[in-house]
Amino acid sequence: MRTTRPLIAASIALVTAAALTGCATDSAEAEADAPETSESSTVEFTWDRNLAGEDEEPNYEETTVEVPKNPESIVVFDMASLDTIGALGGEIAGAPLESVPDYLQGYLAEDAFNAGTLFEADLVAIEAQQPDLIIIGGRSTALFEDLSEIAPTVDLSISGTFLDTLERNTTFLGEVLGAEDAAADALAELEAGIEDAKTVTADAGTGLGLMISGGRLSAMAPAGDAATGRNARGGLIYDVFGVEPVVEDVEAATHGEPVSFEFLLEHNPDFLWVVDRDAATGEENAQAAAAVLDNDIVKQTTAFQEDQIVYLDPTAWYIVFGGIDTTRIMIEDVLQIAE
Description:
By secondary structure, the chain is α/β, with parallel strands linked by helices.
């Protein structure tokens, strides 16, 4: 807080007019020679926050939060943001530790504390640590009100297209960390990698994104321009990487997402792009996706016979999707069909 020194009236009264004039001149010259003020020490982030409850119609309100540049202590509930912060040279002071994938563990501080789960924050632990910045997204969006009482909190959930969100979040975090050039370089690299992957999928024929969990199959569909966390995840293989859907309107064709093995044979895509959800969530004693698809019906499909069933990294495609390192993994997953 700026403080004002008390005036010493007796001394001021003894100062001559000439001296005052000289001081004024010197002050003006000093101001003219002084360097320009430094850039703002905060960064603004604006997003549309949904004020409605889980089962209510969305009610969006534009929300702007100022966050400090170069924060010393960052708590992150969004794994894609944790990924990007680490890839840009930042360090994470607190997170839902049990949810941090192995390949992102190196971005945690040595003394990183457990901030709760992806759905429920440990407010006492976070308050005790007094972080400078808290980041939420996706599964943790409902935590905003409570966490914003502790520190500046921003929601980096997917909004609009996946690629627009990737650019927005990477640019924002680069500015917060003072790593603007690194963020720009990373985005250029990812853009080039995605274009390479799209060149490969352009000649690959039709495809179907397939999620497998508990022995059941769910067809994934393009999300288009109005993506949310859930439908963006399902549409990544089409919306980002240019795979041609074997069925234009998956939901209409399936009467919802669940599909049968006969559906695969009926529509017979050239490629199956498979996400093993149980592997992503660590479901115990779950049947692996490859075992689920090892049956006589699937063996009649083009994808099986041409060895064109692609098993995508389940953590990258289901849990994290959106960070710098994770997008690199996704690019490599798609490019493997060119080998």
